Every structure is written in C-alpha cells, then in structure tokens.
Amino acid sequence: MNAASYVIPLPPQASLPVVGETGRFPVRRIWCVGRNYLEHIREMGNDERAPPFFFAKHADMLVPDGATIPYPPLTKDLHHEVELIVALKSGGLNIPAEKALDHVYGYAVGIDLTRRDLQIASRKKERPWEIGKSFDGSAPASAVQPASKIGHPTKGRIWLTVNGKEAQTGDLEQMIWNVPETIWQLSQQVKLAAGDIIMMGTPAGVSQLQPGDKLECGVDGVGSLKVSIGQPE
C-alpha cells in the first residue's frame, strides 16, 4: 500500500543512524531487560535470583544523540539508566542461544529514562510498569555500530555522567544474562523480527535528574551518547 491508501497520514518510521552508512536502521519494537546487573538489583532491593523479564517502549519514544528532552509530566523522580542496545537484523521464535548472534545487526548505547516514583507505585499495586517506563522521549539512543565492524562485545566499560560527574559505571561482563541468552529468553515470549532492538539492563548508580542536567554515557568499543533534560512542556 502507498500513503494514499490510508485515511490519515502515515506515522514516520522510527530509525537510528548507522555509523559509516548513509542508510538508517529502522526500529520496529523496543524491548527492555529488567534487572540484569547484580549491583543494580541490590540497590533497588530486588530478588537477585529472579529470571529475566521484559517490558516494552514504543519505537517513537526514541531520542537522537544531542537532543534536549523535556522533563516528563506526572513525575518528581526521573532517573537515568545507561544500557547496551542490541539491534536485530532478523528474528524468529525460540531462537537457540548458540544461534542468537546470527540475528544481530549491531550495537548502540541507550538510556532507559524512568519515572521511578510512578514505577514504584505501580509495582506496589501489582500493576504494569508502563506508566513509569514508557513515555515520550524515554529512549535516547546513539548511532548503531554494525557487528560486522566491531564484533559482538562481551566486556567493556559502560558508564554515565551527569553534569560531568560519574553516576554509573560497570562492565558488560557483569550482565547476569548475556546477549545470546537474552535473545533466547525473549524469543520464547514473542516472535522477534528485523528492526527490533533490545535494551540490555543497567549497572548500579541510577539517580534523580532535574531540568538543566546534561547526560553523557557510553560503552567502550560501541559508542557514546549525549542528551540534556529540558524544562517541562
């Protein structure tokens, strides 16, 4: 179908730039791994032995490098969570861990912005996390580095600073569930496809943000990302 086949204008296709390419990576879905670094689990007071679980953000919540993100509504406790992003070029159901990396196009750096007060309130009421995790501008992301150029990183520093002061630091090898295991687990829940991205969880050090804060983060060998928090709209 072409644009004339629809009764309203087609929404724009969410996408990320690709390092060294003029073409962009189209994003279909955003999946996020909950509690994948031990120290972050401990700082949040959660069960260290729990299996991985997943929540989603909408693709149009992506924010590009260099953007200013308006402080979101309904919260007084906005937090940062730096994460490795995995970008898929193909997918399927029940992907074996030993075949999972065959489906990876590349990697990027992201921030899972979280309305922590709303997330905690939902958790206490045993409601979905969506109000705390899925909101406009909640998924800043860097350009994608093709795995054909950088390989598949299994270790390397992951970090985030707020106004030049280190807030989060860790290493990819500290992930409880690595990339192949995560793809295997998620593909049992839903059929993955080209254009899906997975945010792989965050190390310890999450903290509150205020309008005017400047964030810089990165993953060694993958890239870096800078965004600012603006005034509420």
Q: Architecture, CATH level 2?
A: Alpha-Beta Complex
The CATH homologous superfamily: Fumarylacetoacetase-like, C-terminal domain
Can you identify the CATH class?
A: Alpha Beta
* Spatial order of strands in the largest sheet: 4-3-15-8-9-12
Mean pLDDT: 94
Strand content: 25-35%
Structural class of the secondary structure composition?
A: alpha+beta
Order of helices and strands: EEEHEEEEEEEHHEEHEEHEEEE
Shape: globular
User: What is the number of helices?
Assistant: 5
Largest sheet: 6 strands, mixed
Task: Give me the Rg, rounded.
Answer: 17 Å
Give the low-confidence spans. none
* Distance, first to last CA: 36 Å
The strand count comes to 18
Helix fraction? 10-25%
Q: What is the CATH topology descriptor? A: Fumarylacetoacetate hydrolase, domain 2
Number of structural units classed as domains: 1
Question: Would you mind describing this structure in some detail?
Answer:
With 233 residues, the protein is of the alpha+beta class. It has a single domain, classed as Fumarylacetoacetate hydrolase, domain 2, CATH 3.90.850. It contains five helices and 18 strands. The chain has helices spanning 38-43, 116-124, 130-133, 147-150, 179-189, and strands at 15-17, 24-26, 30-34, 53-57, 62-63, 68-70, 78-79, 82-88, 104-111, 114-115, 139-140, 145-146, 157-162, 165-171, 197-199, 208-209, 214-219, 223-230. The strands form five sheets. It has a six-stranded mixed β-sheet with strand order 4-3-15-8-9-12. A five-stranded mixed β-sheet has the order 6-18-17-13-14, with no helix packed on it. A three-stranded antiparallel β-sheet has the order 10-7-16. The protein is globular. The termini are far apart. GO terms for molecular function: fumarylpyruvate hydrolase activity.
